[in-house]
Structure formats: structure tokens, C-alpha cells
Amino acid sequence: MATKHEQILNYILALDVGEKISVRGIAKNLEVSEGTAYRAIKEAENQGIVSTIERVGTIRIEKKQKENFERLTYAEVVNIIDGQVLGGRNGLHKTLNRFVIGAMKLEAMMRYVEPGNLLIVGNRYQVHKLALEAGAAVLITGGFDTNEHVISLADELGLPVITTTYDTFTVATMINRAIYDQLIKKEIVVVNDILIPLQDTYFMTVDNTVEKWHEMNQKTGHSRYPVISEDMKVQGMVAAKDVLGASVQTPIEKVMTKSPITVSERTSVASVAHTMVWEGIELLPVMDDAKKLLGVISRQDVLKALQMVQRQPHVGETIEDTVTSRFREAPPGSGFMFECDITPQMTNALGTVANGVIMSLVTETGQRLLRDYKKGDMVVENVTLYFIRPVQIESKIELNGKILEVGRKHGKVDVELYYEGAIVGKAMMMVQLLDR
């Protein structure tokens, strides 16, 4: 039987896209406490099936597919720019195709306005009206309002009219940044991208015996299986070492490893790789938020995914990409191994190099040195930064590294950072080495 939490999520999924949701309404309709309803709505928001907007409320939105991840809904735009919805609330769930900045004459501007667009413009009432008639939503900058006729038209067409106190340039920058962030998220490989789904997963139940394990081992050739209860919740893991020497009539729950390490479908593959190597695990159960089995993920699939990611070009540039793109080998005879130019994006509010950038420089140095000794993938286990001095904007940092230890599964590197010949940072990095 489904839990109250699951019942609420199923109820939300069954609602029409665009329908408004409230904690009190769900608590009353499903006869649950408001606390239970609130937690379920927050989970639905994490899953991307509802969106909460200040002064509007929570609405059901269409869940985004991975390939459509870089597109924003009008509801998300409202949250990004801290906007207020003047009209057309029933269209907030819709996805915008692109945004158009209305900084030209009316005739020229309307050539670019199409259905599904978001027109960013000031207090030009006639433009607001024509944009809605063309099938586009309107975002009014500078804290301006619009007239009652435009608001009525927006409600009638289901196209949002939004206002914000920010200026046009700031709004465009904020939306671009949000789309850019979505692109970066899209590129991060998570468990859901590579898991073996439930219909293809071999598992055992708590009422099975060791005899069942031998039957499945003969049939599948696998030696590790998740063990689940009647309601599909993961109770344990059983492997060959667990059944070794056990009677075939022994209940499987007597020999299984209870409370096994599990992962969620939203966990990053890099995090899973770290767990699998550190714990020596070959197979992990994947669970949903109700602790029910969704499938399994194997160490082999994780390593393949990591290799694939390293070969893929990035669309969105992260801070790490910014650092590594300017990271290069130092000229021969300089006395240093690597160097990197510090750009304004790499600094903090005081104009000195951000600590996160220092960490990226350390890890890049260590990884390059280790790759010369050991081919394969690696996952950073920990970095200890035990000395640091401020480095100014638009300077050049030079780096030296020394390998302290390289084993079959681990590596340790000492890294020193210099500015104008003086040492400005020292760190030690430890990594897990993954054989390909």
C-alpha cells in the first residue's frame, strides 16, 4: 500500500498542468496533516513537477525532459528576476522558446516577436498588447505597470505579464545566467542516466532462501542481488561471500548485508564512483524518495560513464573550466611546471584569488602529474590547503608539484603555488585511482 507521501505525489502528478496547489487544499482533500502535505509538495518541487512563486502560490508544471533542460518556464523566470505577476497566471507553467529585448521601434520589434517568446520591454502599453496578440508573454522592467486592458487580455490568452524592478540589461543577464546554469546541469551525468531499470534488474525478496540465490546465480551468472520487502523497499544486499557455507534452506535475510549503501537517481556519477571505490562495492541499489527499488548501478557502468564524460566537450563553462582553459605548462627554464593567468571571474569581492580557484589549480596540477605515472581515471578524495596568501587580480600564478606516493588505488601529491617568485600557497591532494 502506498504511503501518504506517495499518495500526495501521485495526486499532484494526476493534476492538470497549470493547476494551482496549496498545502491546506491537499491536506483537506487527502485527509493528511499540513506538515505531510508541505513535505510532499517540496519533494514535488525537487522533482520539477511543481513551481512555487511568491504572491502567486504553487502550480503544477510540466516535468522537463533532459533534452529540454535548457528551456525555462515563465514560472521559473518570475523566481529568477524576483518578479510580480500582473496577469495571465494560468500560463505560468508554459515553456518559453526565447526572449526578445524590445529596445527598438515598434514595427522593427514586432518582426522578432513570435508565439512562445518572452518580450522584455519597459512601460509601452501598446507593445504589451501587440506582444500578447502575437502569442508572446511580456516582462516589464524598471518596476513599471501596465493597463487593465492588457491584464484582461493576458488572463484571456493565458500568457503571463510580469513586472520586475530590475532594468532590462540586468534582467537579460539574469535569465541568460539561468539558462547557462541549466546547460551545465544538463551535462552532469547522474545515476538516472545509466542505471539498469527495475524491469531488467534481478533481485531477491526477504522470504527467499539461499537456495533461491543459487538458482538465480545459475540462471543469470550474477553473484550480487538487492533484497527487497513486499512493498519493494530495499532491505539488504546479498553476494557470493554471504552465502558461502550456508545451508540452502537458510533464509536470505539471515545472511544478507542489512541497511546497505544505496544511492538516489539524482546522485552524480562522480559521487557514486567515489563511494564504490572507497567502499569496494561492485553493485549499488538505486532507490526513489520512498526507499523503493528503482534499479541498480554497476561499477563497470560508472567507470564507462566517467570516461564518456571526459571525452565530451562542455557547452556551459564552469569556474573549473575557466581555470583549466588558462592553465598551461610553464616555459622551459622558468623553474616551474605550470602557470595560470588570473582573470576577474576567478576573484572574490576583495579582488584576490577565490579559494575555490586555488583548489582547482591544486587539483589540476595533481591530476596532470599523476596521469604521467598512472593511466586511467581518478577521483579526488581530499585536498588539504595548509598555507595561503592573497594574490591580486590579473596576476600570474606559477605551480610546482611533487608526487609523494602512487599505489595501485591511491595517489598523493604535494603542490606549491608561487606569485612573482614568492610562495603563496601549499596543499596536499589525495586521489583514488580507477583502472580502465
Automatic annotation (TrEMBL):
Record SUPFAM superfamilies: CBS-domain pair (SSF54631), HprK N-terminal domain-like (SSF75138), Thioesterase/thiol ester dehydrase-isomerase (SSF54637), Winged helix' DNA-binding domain (SSF46785)
Protein name per Swiss-Prot or TrEMBL: Thioesterase
Location of the CBS domain: 195-254, 256-318
UniProt xrefs under Pfam families: 4HBT, CBS, DRTGG
UniProt-listed CDD domains: CBS_pair_DRTGG_assoc, hot_dog
Matches recorded under PANTHER family: CBS DOMAIN-CONTAINING PROTEIN, CBS DOMAIN-CONTAINING PROTEIN CBSX3, MITOCHONDRIAL
Keyword Glycosyltransferase: no
Recorded coiled-coil stretches: none
Xref: InterPro entries: CBS_dom (IPR000644), CBS_dom_sf (IPR046342), Diverse_CBS-Domain (IPR051257), DRTGG (IPR010766), HotDog_dom_sf (IPR029069), Ser_kin/Pase_Hpr-like_N_sf (IPR028979), Thioestr_dom (IPR006683), WH-like_DNA-bd_sf (IPR036388)
This protein's UniProt keywords: CBS domain
Source superkingdom: Bacteria
